[in-house]
Amino acid sequence: MIKITEAFVEDIAKIQEIAHITWPITYGEILTSEQLDYMLDLIYSDEALSKQIQNKEQLFYLVSDSESVIGFIGIEHHYKNEAITKIHKIYLLPETQGKGYGKTVFESIEKLALENNSKELLLNVNRFNTALNFYKKLGFEIKETVDIEIGNGYLMEDYVMGKDILK
């Protein structure tokens, strides 16, 4: 049984712990270790997460099974003032893969999106991330290809993927 609960500033250490476990596995063969460290610090520092949580730039949720926290998500409803929920972050511990947890988490995100009058889910995925196939199985389609400068000479080379959630 998966439980999704809102995360707060006091949960930052748990979010950082999961990010530091999942990122090297997810991006270790895609990014240099220098870019990996740079991005983790940029996105998951105490200051960055506190700002995002306190200013409600993103709503953070912890994902738990019956025993412990196994992941987190960061979403934004009304993205760019449209009927879109943007999934900024979704990371589950590697040992959860293949157990249906990811699909369950996406169903929960879709439910939250619909409750907030969204018609579409949107996410960015690195063009070389193996999760791309998982997202396609869930009904996401590539909408565009983007290169996003993040400083220090680094780029995020992503696909923007979308899924219509109105039945």
Automatic annotation (TrEMBL):
UniProt-listed SUPFAM superfamilies: Acyl-CoA N-acyltransferases (Nat) (SSF55729)
A GO MF label: acyltransferase activity
Record domain N-acetyltransferase: where: 2-166
Main EC class the enzyme belongs to: transferase
Keywords carried by this UniProt record: Acyltransferase, Transferase
EC numbers: 2.3.-.-
Gene3D superfamilies: 3.40.630.30
Coiled-coil residue windows: none
Domain of life: Bacteria
The protein, known as: GNAT family N-acetyltransferase
